[in-house]
Fold this sequence. Notes:
There is one protein chain. With 173 residues, this protein is mostly helical. It is built from 7 helices and 2 strands, in the order H-H-H-H-H-E-E-H-H. It has helices at 8-37, 47-58, 66-79, 85-97, 101-113, 139-152, 156-172; strands spanning 115-118, 122-125. A two-stranded antiparallel sheet has the order 1-2. A hairpin with a 3-residue loop joins strand 1 and strand 2 (122-125). It is globular and about 50 Å long.
Amino acid sequence: VPDVDKNHEMSEIYRRGFEYLKKQARKEYERMKEREKKEDSALVPSEQILHYLYICALDSTLQVEKEVNDYFLQILEPQSARLTIYGKSLASIIYQHAGRMEKAEELLRSVMEYSVVSEEMGRYFDTEKAPYSWFSYKIPTEVMAIEALTRLGKDKETVEQMKRWLLKQKQTQ
């Protein structure tokens, strides 16, 4: 989260951007509630909503609609097994912020089940559950998993192994 207090122009852009995301979250919430009335059981928040909830988790000063955010957390929980490794790591941070530590830890355990480790390469994800994203890089998935592990304060050795993989990527790309 940028230090928006130091730059008024940046602060205004940040505020307007967040307000836009909040409006989009409200619209998705209303659409999902309508679908819920039609007994649609396959409701899953969009990736945009995951990123919105992540921003809310990073910046506790934001004015959020608690009803909307709580609804997304409730809907997301039973569907979280279907998320990618990146999505599970992101959701873990979101659940940590919401005080749902058991769910956050469960998601991280699931994430780590997909990791492989070698002395030379470190720890990384070599699976279809860690698809290439953002212009064909697996790096965002690795970074999000590192952030989730670090925020939980768990397994510093695993984080160091993951950092080793990132350094190897830097050397080869």
